[in-house]
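Predict structure. Chain length: 375.
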Amino acid sequence: MKKKSLWKWASVMAASVVLLAACNSDEEGSGSTGGGSGVDVGIVLPTKDEPRWVQDEQRFKEALEDSDYSTEILFSQGSSAKEKENVDALLNKGIDVLIITPHDGAAAGAAVEAAKADGVTVISYDRLITDTDAVDYYVTFDSLAVGAAQAQYLIDNAEGTGVPLYLYAGAASDNNAFLFFQGAWEVLQPKIADGTFVIANSSEAEALSDKAELSRDELSKIIGQVTTNWDPNEAKNKAQTHLTAAADDQKGDVAILAPNDGTARAIADVFGSDGAVTSFLVTGQDAEKASIQYIIDGKQSMTVFKDVRTLVQDAMGMAIDILDGNDPETTGSYDNGAVEVKAKQTDVIVVDQENVKAELVDSGYYEASEFTGLE
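Prediction complete.
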């Protein structure tokens, strides 16, 4: 274990949050922060093509810029092979802690097993690495609660009965996509069973509509039909296909379970351009800036705000505890298929037109000047 002086974590988080002006990054990675010749904490994020992960990169840099611990952030650009290369590169720089968001939860096993073999503590960040015992900790938002919040919003805001329900999910390679969908299904299913909602775009979901709790295999069958792979273009194409095939009674006033903000905007654009769709509710998550503007404009109904400032603070606080030889605080555990992984969970917040200013502008997360029409 490296022994270096460290300012207290509270001081680090309270310090100036000015970005590192000298740190330019290329497509795969970014420079190191902190002092020393080696790297203490290696961070591997899945892609720079989604605003969420670029935002996380910034937060990680801010978290350690005034400490004596060093970190390096690399991006895998949606490739498990590149992810493994990134981990190997960080191991060669002598890291003690690896924080990694896997592109593919199962495929990341080889990368983290190499890290464990080198005596590195592995923290799975936001997405769980599955089917390996080489994961020490998991820092996450409560993924079941995210899906449940999306579903409850649809229930609370839908009117009447027989409302066409369009289901969409994240990538089948991402364990979080299963948790989000599971959380949503368990809330929606009673309202599907009683006729409040009628599933419009998934024969697999229709066949299972009488089951409140689904097995992993049953969830997989539904997600296989409605996956967006977290890709807005794929979400757009699926939505277009579904609406083209939809009967008249599957349009009108509809409800849409969209898994995240990028897919929500793409799906909303498709439904909004169909003259037979008179109104739609559509969910999201991540509070991306573009989706906040959509919410203000009435084109997206809600987003689940996951404050990455808190999640990054939890992850870096855990890493610092490990580097200091202390046991990190955990609040639960997750079964990754091989072991129960100790976890630190962060709460989520539902944001819509009514509270968007209070939660995202008044809290300092975004500036009011970044939006138009905000009252």
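Summary: Confidence is low (pLDDT under 50) at residues 1-28.
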